[in-house]
UniProtKB/TrEMBL annotation:
InterPro entries: Acyl-CoA_Synth/Transferase (IPR051538), Acyl_CoA_acyltransferase (IPR016181), ATP_grasp_subdomain_1 (IPR013815), CoA-bd (IPR003781), GNAT_dom (IPR000182), NAD(P)-bd_dom_sf (IPR036291), Succ_CoA_lig_flav_dom (IPR032875), Succinyl-CoA_synth-like (IPR016102). The keyword Nucleotide-binding applies. SUPFAM superfamilies: Acyl-CoA N-acyltransferases (Nat), Glutathione synthetase ATP-binding domain-like, NAD(P)-binding Rossmann-fold domains, Succinyl-CoA synthetase domains. This is Bifunctional acetate--CoA ligase family protein/GNAT family N-acetyltransferase. It comes from Aeromonas hydrophila.
Amino acid sequence: MKPSGLDRLFKPQSIAVIGASTDPQKAGHVVIRHLLAGQFKGPILPVSPHSKAIAGVLAYADIDSLPLAPDLAIVCTRRERVLTLIEALGKRGTGAAIILAADFTASEREQLQQLTQQYGIRLLGPNSMGMLLPGQGINASFSPIAAKPGQVAFLSQSAAVSTTILDWAKQHELGFSAFISLGDHCDINFGQLLDQLSRDSVTRAILLYMDKLQDARHFLSAARAAARNKPILVLKSGRHEPDSGLDNVYDAAIRRAGMLRVRDTHELFAAVETLSHSLTLKGERLAIISNGRGLANMAIDKLLERGGKLAMPPRDIGSDADINDYQQALDDLLQGDEADAILLIHAPSLTARGTALARSLIDYVKQHPRARRFNILTNWAGEYSAQEGRRLFSEAGFPTYRTPESAVAAFMHMVEYRRNQKQLMETPASLQGDRLNLELCQQLIRQALERKQLTLDTHLAHPILQAAGLSTLPTWIVSDAIEATLTAEQIGYPVAVKLRSPDILHKSAVHGVMLNLRTSAEVAQAADAILDRVRQHDPGARIEGLLVQRMARRSGGLELRIRLQQDPVFGPVILLGESGTEPQEMMAALPPLNQALARYQIIGALKSRKIREQASPERLDIDALGQVLCQLSELLLAFPEIQQLDLHPLQACGAEMVVLDASLTLQPAEEGRCRLAIRPYPTELEEGARLKDQSHVLLRPIRPEDEPAHKQFVLKVSDEDRYKRFFADVGELGHEELARMTQIDYDREMAFVAVGQDGPFDQQILGVVRAISNPDLSDAEFAILVRSDLKGLGLGKLMMEKIVRYARERGIGQLSGMTMPSNRGMINLAKRLGFKIDIQLEDGVVNMELPCASQGQA
């Protein structure tokens, strides 16, 4: 694929410092000194109209005087000069610039964005501390602390947090592959940096500190792609700021992308320690060796509290344990297969000095032939006597911690990352039938909008909920106690009587719901009491009568709350909790949901006790509730007019889910449409086609539920054809490989499957073509595979034409692919479709390229 536009930021060949200064107190001097101290091998070009040389380096009066266009410029001037300087750099052909100045107005930020579009210059900042790329000897920052090379990247919006992390890392001898301060990110954002770092072979893990998030969709897409290959940990602040959205929605987004969230700087420091030194975790079983039961018990308590797995009872080798005792206990574990990770704990002791023991164990582990199979963590407890031992472990590449709890918390970060990745690759079950009547829902929503009914109570929302496939209880509107009594007599007891008022959002505030009324006298009394309480509580409130509703036939079930609402950052969200809980206390999920994702939301709510199961004859049916969540997700996707839907409560009795009360808020689509944070299944790309034998196929995007059918499809492809597709001998594909093929991000990858629609191949996958694009859409790599027993029917041509049309509509610059010289069928087909063919006989490959964007963009 073509290189990213950020390459000149990450791999500059020359660096200019605009506003360089001889004054040691100014950023322009500090940055020059840091660049020179960092051993950057390319030219460093100070720009200053006041000095002929800065720190012994020839200076230039202005940007036009520079002998070459710098790849990277660090702008150290006052805010008022920045716009003019960025324009001059853009005209000169500079690839990227870092803006240190702060306090830009909204208008100035907009002008900066216009300059990036006009000249193609990429901007980091404003209000950036700069960046450090230690492996390249680049310290393009005003941080007082340098960084050593390492394998962890750190991205931050806060200069204060950045310098704190650098200071801590220096003390612990930890390094970074990249250390970048985004500042106010008017151009370069988290998503673009994640795309770049995901392809960086040096970076093994990524840490993020964020205050706020822009372009949630791009961020989640980039984060999910990166997190499949390397851990990403997030520290999010500003949890209580009103304009930043619900914090539980951030939790949901971070989980959905496969990242992990840490709650404070202590966890973040532990994460840096772990990710800098740990191996890929092969399992979750932790074994503990300790010279004291108390510290071991503290570790076990934290492990079980976090849902971890103890491999075996802790090995307490006693307070008088010496070096030989530790080595013997460690060897017993290394020789076996009962654990995946080992925590070594040492309390200060006369028989085994901490420093000598650390040095001995480091040598022992490095020489042990099986040590690389295990993650080994250390906790040298204490402060004065343990400090040198911890330093030795850190220098030797062993994760080391001050307390047993922090060691276990760090281990659980690795476990939770592993679990999250496995969960995200679980194959979802297919939904049970098409319960959503889209046509009827659309008609009912349109009618409500035409009548200017933007807020619908239980009675008005009832037909829409039924059309959405949800079970509801019918309601009757009455005006007073007499009508309530007559209605109750007609529908049968027991009944519920509820207030109907557009001005009182929470009926509980006036005790506006009375349940289990079994006689006419109880109904009349309840109706009068509700109306009296409203008049006393809010005399000006509009009262539109009362609702009478038959009580649900079954008792003993859970009363839940499901709420659909718009989040200011992530768009539509689905919240789940017990009846009576507030949105910020509920378990959040982002649509679109499938059965697997809905199941995780429910299990998460149960584990965190946001839903507390009570003793009842029938336990909560997770699959049935998951079906409801999926139906609501589909409703949200289909109708952007839905601003809020509150099912409160929904009664869950075993597999029976009944909506007892609801409210629905609508807005016309042009006002209410909110961009989804995750692109849903693109139904609009489905199309029918006919093969040469007149059989019908459906060309459609692949879905996660296709994994079983996709596995059978690959088995129908001959060994020779699989070799031509994968450039290797490929046997039966495992779940992980199939999940990666079927669970795709439609924003950056597309795979079309051809599904038979009649005859012996009905509902079978007959072929697949896919294209994976660069983040900037400059290029997409394609690959195609067709069942070997269906060649000659024109299926390959149909699918290639489909992917070419898609690439042009998407605005992709070019399609490129690779095959073998022996694959004459593919080569001839590519030629007929206009691909440029380049045969590399020495390498045994054929490159195929087709320009797309110039021939029509979406």
